[in-house]
Write a structure and sequence with these properties.
The complex is a heterotrimer of chains A (about 375), B (about 350) and C (about 325).
Chain A lengths: L1 H20 L16 H6 L34 E7 L5 H14 L5 E7 L4 H13 L4 E4 L8 H9 L4 E4 L10 E4 L2 H16 L4 E6 L10 H12 L3 E7 L5 H14 L7 E4 L2 H13 L8 E6 L2 H9 L4 E4 L2 H18 L13 E3 L3 E4 L3 H7 L12
Chain B lengths: L1 H9 L1 H19 L6 H26 L7 H18 L4 H28 L4 H20 L11 E5 L2 E6 L5 E2 L2 E2 H19 L1 H11 L1 H7 L3 H27 L11 H10 L11 H20 L7 H37 L1
Antiparallel strand pairs in B: 1-2, 3-4
Chain C lengths: L2 H23 L6 H26 L7 H17 L4 H25 L4 H19 L25 E2 L2 E2 H19 L1 H11 L1 H6 L4 H27 L10 H12 L10 H19 L5 H34 L1
Antiparallel strand pairs in C: 1-2
Helix pairs in contact in C: 1-11, 1-12, 2-6, 2-9, 2-10, 2-11, 3-4, 3-5, 3-9, 4-5, 4-9, 6-7, 7-9, 10-11, 11-12
The chains are: A alpha/beta (about 375), B mainly alpha (about 350), C mainly alpha (about 325).
Chain lengths: ~375, ~350, ~325
């Protein structure tokens, strides 16, 4: 019996080792074919001004090698950990593409994408994982602005700059926050819709799931603008569970059942998926000609097309591709100069607010032309 | 007479009708819009995808297991079907071959789950959870993270220039009944027939009741259980394709974590998760009830932050009511028997 | 050797094999910091799994664990902002958890709802209550609030010699739970109602009371887990417990607790939780694409449970043959 056990254990070991050895999967392959305009995108990157706290010797100068306190970004192996809230979803695909496209020119840079699966505890685990594995930079899409504070402090203390993007801004001082400005884009969305609809009517808000409200404040921004500055009546405010397009469609359908023709003036949607669901519901109910104004968020390809086709009134556009492409270089800058909130002596986190600008039928063609979103539309580049 | 009424309410159908009547009374007072034909269509459309998945998982639950991978299977099925369709330019043949391949994959995945459960006597919970991870991770291999956007007429089957069959985006109409609902009705009818009228169905109940006894009686439990998982996989695949068509997109997030809704529907519908008890009627009623709750909450403009709480309370109240109705009816039964005994 | 011991050795053996493989393939796996982090991360899930083990062994299931965690978490953070002593808050967390467990038990034993239904619905109720108790800013929108820096609750996030308090609490609770379940009458009764409820009842066990105690203990474990985790995180995000009931059940099942009841023990739950967390920790070291991480996670779970089953069958056959 003992012999059997030992043999069996050995077999398991062999099998497992074989498993692991064969496990050398390639990382995400980058789509190099259709990226000829990335260079121009970086030059006129909308809303990503130069790092205001960059010390001397930015990454623009070639051939300078490592600076004191930093690494040689052209030769040293560099690992960047990109921690998202969840890797499903088109936004993630977009920024992975943006980062990968830049990394093509830096073969020594490895980008490691991590999925926190909507679990704030897991984000902490992933940050600590990056510290353990001695990553050079962390790009974090933060879910809970408080929960990650200790982990971020540890990272910064270990010399790993933490750059937070979009979503919630962690309260603790860290290297940089590049904001997606959700509250103000909700506010501006309200302004734009009122410009289109006039200062009367009703508004429906298809908002984020209830537990996300602290971090995703676009719906709140819209409601604030509407209730404080206009005569428009806020008639419905519905949380869309899981940001799911199907739930949005069902909820919109129910709203349409409740309100007759002409009773709904505008619908504010907290994401492109939700806008998609709302649009489909309106079309399917045959009420597309009522002129209900739908406003989205992020400017997904399908949103832009819907605006062009007149199904949607507009959206707040965020060029995620350009934002993350620029972020790549910002990260490299931090790594090259050894800049963290500690070495820089920060007392507050520098923040770059990336303004989202409204896209309506007037400018949608231009936006579609330069937008990096179009690369995510389909693998075949259609 | 009173006791007859109580017993009627206590029966399974009685409970369901009572709940529906109660909801109708509340809505008649609070928001009569509930009773519009459009609203019924809306509710049925909302539960179509969930309903098909519930019918599938029901098979696995009846034999004493469960299938936590239905969400992921729906997702990968949608992704494969639409990727293949897209590469053929969204022609009918492209769609058909895409769907065929997708459903075949779901069959295979279901079979693997079933084999692991039967061959190694592994708990279905863990096996299907692991399968969920494997399938979910594989979706990325199919889509590379992109979303496939089918044309507005969604999934369609064309003869010449005429679209003969389609699930349009948004779930449009044919004969004034939305296509997904028609599919739901067909699936429900077939599953109910299989479970009630065929020997396969009866075997499943036997296995769920007591697997050892079923084996002794000569039922090939293992083969039947594998079949149940395969059915669950295929129906999840069909649901996924339907969902992607209704949404106008197929990708990584399609049907993400939908198994939670399926479990909720089954549990509310009175299906016994230990196996051997429950039917399509209960499962679909569960899905319907949850769909109605969601609908009611939107119609009544329930405030965003208390919706989860309301959902929990309503389900709890409904199930408690059911329980008392059942007990009341068995109580009435007992009284009748006691009286009969006394009279004898 | 008793078959239970063999089962235990096999599950621990699988865990060890994983550890060995990961140590070989990555040089940062087996260092002190990583293991300390691993144990710290596992403790939250692990504590919930121990509570879940009580319920599952008794033949039931508790799908409200996640909701309970969210609710108790937010209430504890509220208490910390009011300046209560850290120890009191932890105690309050445990008691609140017990209260929730008591409510669960009420619906299961008095109203006689199915466990699944009752706990699922109550899970929604607790999650819903979390939103109601959440912090709001002046405008009434939900906002995030941290445990104040001066609150003594923060002290529970500390460590002694690098090992975090939550890890120590977890191991201690696991041992106590093991002793309770295997050496007390209550534990014996729990196993018997799990194995065969009717015969347990006929032999005089008060099924309802045992079940109720099981749920209350589960609630206590969840409450303790979330208070300590909130202390570590510095806040209690509204979805801090979301999905943990399923993870806890998975941890129990992989560790050897059978879903029908009557088999397994809290140490299995501990091993199961450790298995999942070690697996993820190890996989992260490879820097794989997330899709491959998922695929491998699923694959390794299958492989491990298959080996566990095959070994158990082989050794029990041997035992049987030897006995004859």
């Amino acid at each position: 019996m003992r012999r059997m056990k030992i043999i069996a254990m050995l077999l398991v070991l062999v099998m497992a080792v074989g498993f692991i050895a064969s496990c050398d999967k390639p990382k995400e392959t980058t789509n190099t074919s259709n990226n000829d305009n990335t260079a121009s995108n970086n030059d006129n990157s909308a809303g990503a001004p130069a790092d205001p706290t960059a010390s001397s010797g930015s990454s623009g100068s070639t051939g300078t090698g490592a600076l004191p306190g930093g690494k040689n970004i052209y030769e040293d192996p560099i690992k960047i950990s990109v921690i998202s809230i969840s890797t499903a979803g088109i936004v993630n695909r977009m920024y992975q593409m943006a980062l990968n496209d830049q990394a093509v020119r830096y073969p020594n840079v490895i980008l490691d994408y991590k999925d926190a699966e909507y679990d704030p505890s897991k984000q902490v685990t992933l940050i600590e994982e990056a510290i353990t594995q001695k990553y050079d930079c962390i790009i974090l899409e933060c879910m809970d602005p408080v929960g990650v504070n200790e982990a971020i402090d540890k990272a910064e203390a270990a010399g790993i700059p933490v750059i937070s993007t979009n979503a919630a801004e962690p309260f603790t001082v860290h290297s940089l926050h590049v904001a997606g400005a959700d509250y103000s884009s909700g506010w501006k969305g309200g302004e734009e819709l009122v410009k289109l609809a006039g200062n009367e009517g009703t508004a429906v808000v298809l908002d984020c799931p209830a537990s996300f409200k602290p971090g995703a404040r676009m719906g709140t921004g819209f409601e604030d603008y509407i209730t404080q500055n206009t005569n428009i009546r806020l008639i419905e405010q519905i949380p869309i569970e899981n940001w799911d397009a199907a739930v949005a469609q069902t909820s919109m359908r129910d709203v349409l059942t409740k309100y007759g023709p002409g009773e709904i003036t505008m619908v504010y949607c907290s994401s492109g998926d939700i806008a998609n669901g709302a649009m489909n519901a309106i079309d399917a109910a045959g009420r597309a000609d009522e002129g209900i104004l739908i406003w989205g968020f992020m400017g997904y390809p399908m949103e832009l097309e819907a605006i062009r086709d007149g199904r949607m009134a507009g959206t707040m556009f965020s060029d995620t591709y350009t934002q993350y492409a620029a972020l790549f270089y910002i990260a490299l800058n931090h790594i090259a100069t050894g800049l963290t909130s500690i070495t820089g002596g920060y007392t507050a986190t520098p923040a770059i607010e990336q303004p989202m600008f409204p896209v309506t039928k007037d400018n949608v063609d231009d936006v579609m032309a330069f937008s990096g979103w179009y690369m995510t539309k389909s693998m075949n580049g259609k | 007479m009173m006791k007859k009424a109580i017993r009627a309410i206590g029966s399974a159908w009685g409970q369901r009708i009572t709940l529906l009547v109660l909801i109708c009374i509340v809505m008649a007072i609070a928001e009569p819009v509930f009773f519009k034909l459009d609203n019924y269509k809306s509710i049925l459309l909302a539960i179509a995808v969930n309903g098909v998945m519930v019918c599938g998982m029901l098979f696995t639950v009846l034999v004493g297991g469960m299938d936590l991978s239905v969400g992921a299977m729906a997702g990968i099925s949608a992704s494969i079907a639409y990727r293949i369709a897209e590469s053929s330019g969204f022609t009918t043949s492209g769609f058909l071959s895409g769907c065929a391949l997708a459903l075949a994959l779901c069959l295979v995945a279901g079979a693997v789950s079933g084999l692991l459960v039967t061959r190694f006597a592994l708990p279905a919970f863990v096996v299907t959870l692991a399968m969920k991870y494997i399938v979910y991770g594989s979706i990325y291999l199919v889509t590379q993270g992109f979303f496939v956007l089918p044309p507005a007429h969604g999934l369609s089957y064309q003869v010449g220039n005429q679209i003969v069959f389609s699930i349009p985006v948004g779930g449009g109409n044919k004969l004034n009944i939305p296509m997904p609902v028609i599919i739901l009705i067909i699936v429900v009818a077939i599953c109910a027939f299989v479970l009630v009228k065929t020997t396969y169905g009866r075997k499943l109940y036997a296995i769920g009741g007591n697997k050892n006894v079923a084996n002794l009686v000569g039922i090939k439990s293992n083969a039947n259980i594998v079949g149940a998982f395969m059915i669950s996989g295929v129906l999840a695949g069909i649901a996924g394709i339907m969902l992607a068509s209704m949404n106008g997109q197929a990708g990584q997030t399609t049907a993400l974590n939908y198994e939670g809704n399926v479990l909720m529907a089954m549990v509310v519908g009175g299906v016994n998760l230990a196996g051997g008890e429950g039917g399509v009627a209960g499962a679909i009623f569960g899905a319907l009830f949850v769909g109605i709750i969601n609908n009611v909450m939107v119609l009544l403009s329930v405030e965003a932050t208390i919706q989860t709480f309301v959902r929990g309370i309503v389900i709890l109240a409904a199930m408690t009511l059911n329980m008392y109705a059942r007990r009341g009816s068995t109580g009435a039964m007992k009284i009748k028997i006691a009286k009969a005994d006394k009279a004898a | 050797m008793a078959s239970k011991t063999i089962r235990r050795m096999i599950s621990i053996g699988l865990l060890l094999i994983m550890v060995i493989i990961f140590s070989i393939s990555s040089d940062v796996f087996l260092n002190f910091g990583n293991i300390a982090n691993l144990l710290k991360d596992s403790a939250y899930l692990g504590l919930i799994a121990i509570g879940m083990a009580f319920v599952i062994i008794g033949g039931g299931v508790d799908l409200s664990a996640g909701g309970m965690a969210c609710l108790v978490g937010i209430l504890c953070v509220r208490m910390s902002t009011m300046g209560l002593n850290g120890f009191l808050i932890v105690l309050a967390g445990v008691i609140l958890g017990m209260l929730c467990g008591f409510i669960n038990a009420l619906f299961v034993t008095r109203v006689k709802l199915t466990e699944f239904v009752a706990t699922l619905a109550l899970g929604f109720v607790y999650s819903g209550l979390t939103l109601i108790f959440a912090f709001r800013d002046d405008r009434g929108t939900i906002t995030s609030v941290a445990i104040p820096k001066w609150s003594s609750l923060r002290a529970f996030a500390g460590n002694v010699g690098g090992i975090f308090y939550i890890t120590i609490v977890w191991i201690v609770v696991a041992v106590i739970a093991y002793i309770v379940l295997t050496r007390t009458t209550f534990g014996l009764h729990t196993y018997s109602i799990g194995s065969h409820a009717k015969s347990a009842q006929m032999s005089g066990v008060n099924n309802d009371r045992i079940k109720m105690l099981g749920y209350i203990i589960c609630g206590a474990c969840v409450g303790l887990a979330v208070v300590l985790q909130a202390s570590l995180l510095g806040s209690s995000p509204l979805n801090i417990g979301s999905g943990y009931e399923f993870q806890a059940i998975a941890a129990c099942v992989v560790g050897g607790v059978v879903l029908g009841g009557g088999k397994g023990d809290p140490i299995s739950a501990l091993v199961g939780a450790l298995f999942f967390k070690t697996l993820m920790n190890g996989l992260y070291k490879f820097g794989l694409a997330t899709s491959w991480e998922y695929i491998l996670q699923g694959g390794i779970i299958v492989v491990a449970t298959v080996f566990d089953a095959v070994f158990n069958r082989a050794t029990s056959k041997r035992l049987l043959a030897r006995a004859q």
